[in-house]
């Protein structure tokens, strides 16, 4: 992800903050406190023209919703006009992680991508302060069992792999084409990593440790996914 952000999209190295289990520095390990700190660091002082990226890859769990919108409040609400956030979350039960009001999925009935209105019935605001937020996550039928755990520095999650593969193969694409390409890669199944160059040189295996079956997208507002160019 660092390589894609810095080499493909022009992010500066010192603008990328990474938390991993392998870090010896306790401030760079993905504890709840550190993740919370990093989310606030990401949006702090954001202004029109800024492009923000949040990525998480790991195991997820489903818990009862007691109106806890901490992540939405941390990195969605602060987005002012002209700021855009992309979140790529490779974890099971990830579709609602940002509590965004609109969800785009592959419709079996219509055979294409369609938006669904996920705004809460109580009228609670789940949007931004004028900016845009887009979440790329995965859907599951709930029956997939997580059978392969990630190995340090060797395994990449299937959703992350499909995202990087799509960006690598089609640098200039639309959101609709991105999701379609990711869907094709994920349906091909896990196995050896087929990413080229520096992106894939240190990765030996693709594992669907998140249990997701298809990519999906959520957004703070609806847009034409087949015409809107994807760019971070």
UniProtKB/TrEMBL annotation:
One Gene Ontology term, aspect cellular component: cytoplasm
Domain Peptidase C14 caspase: 2-187
Alphabetical GO biological process terms: proteolysis
Pfam families reported for this sequence: Peptidase_C14 (PF00656)
Annotated GO MF terms: cysteine-type endopeptidase activity
PANTHER family recorded: METACASPASE-4, PEPTIDASE C14 CASPASE DOMAIN-CONTAINING PROTEIN
Recorded family membership: Belongs to the peptidase C14B family.
Protein name: Peptidase C14 caspase domain-containing protein
UniProt-listed InterPro entries: Metacaspase, Pept_C14_caspase
Annotated source species: Triticum turgidum subsp. durum
Entries under Gene3D superfamilies matching the protein: 3.40.50.12660
């Amino acid at each position: 992800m660092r390589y894609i952000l810095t080499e493909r999209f022009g992010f500066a190295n010192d603008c990328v903050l990474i938390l991993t289990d392998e870090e010896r520095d306790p401030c760079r390990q993905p504890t709840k406190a550190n993740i919370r700190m990093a989310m606030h660091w990401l949006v702090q002082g954001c202004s029109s023209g800024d492009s923000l990226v949040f990525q998480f890859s790991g195991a997820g769990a489903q818990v009862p919703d007691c109106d806890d919108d901490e992540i939405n409040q941390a990195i969605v609400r602060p987005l002012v006009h002209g700021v855009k956030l992309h979140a790529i979350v490779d974890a099971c039960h990830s579709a609602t992680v940002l509590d965004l009001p609109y969800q785009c999925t592959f419709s079996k009935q219509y055979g294409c991508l369609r938006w669904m209105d996920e705004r809460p019935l109580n009228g609670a605001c789940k949007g931004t302060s004028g900016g845009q937020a887009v979440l790329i996550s995965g859907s599951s039928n709930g029956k997939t069992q997580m059978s392969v755990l990630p190995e340090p520095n060797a395994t990449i999650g299937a959703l992350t792999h499909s995202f990087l593969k799509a960006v690598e193969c089609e640098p200039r694409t639309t959101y609709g084409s991105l999701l379609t390409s990711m869907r094709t890669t994920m349906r091909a199944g896990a196995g050896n990593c087929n990413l080229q160059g520096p992106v894939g040189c240190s990765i030996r295996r693709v594992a669907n440790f998140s249990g997701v079956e298809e990519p999906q997208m959520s957004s703070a507002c609806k847009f034409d996914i087949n015409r809107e160019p994807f760019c971070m």
